[in-house]
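[Meeting: bench + compute handoff]

Bench side (C.D.) handed over the final construct sequence. Compute side (W.E.) agreed to return the predicted structure before the next meeting so the bench team could plan truncations. Sequence as handed over:
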Amino acid sequence: MRAPQPGTVRDYSVSANGKVVATVTKNHQRVNRLRFEPVETKSIRVAITATNGLEQARLFEIRCYSFSAKTASGLPIR
C-alpha cells in the first residue's frame, strides 16, 4: 500500500453562493468525485486548507455536472 503523495490535497471545502456544499478531510486520492444537493450558481470556490506534505496546493481541473432523471448517467447536459 502506498502512502499519500505530498502533492495531494488533504483537506478542502467547496462553496457555492457563499455556502459550503461539501467538506473533505483526510483525503489521500488524486481524483475526488463529490455529490451534493443541486444548487444554481455562476461560480464555485474551492478552499484548500491542507496538503499531504507540500507547502503549495495545486488544483488542475474541476468538472461540474447536473444530475436529474434525464441525466442519471452522469453525462454533462449539452
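W.E. noted at the follow-up: The chain is about 0% helix and 30% strand. C.D. will use this when planning the next construct.
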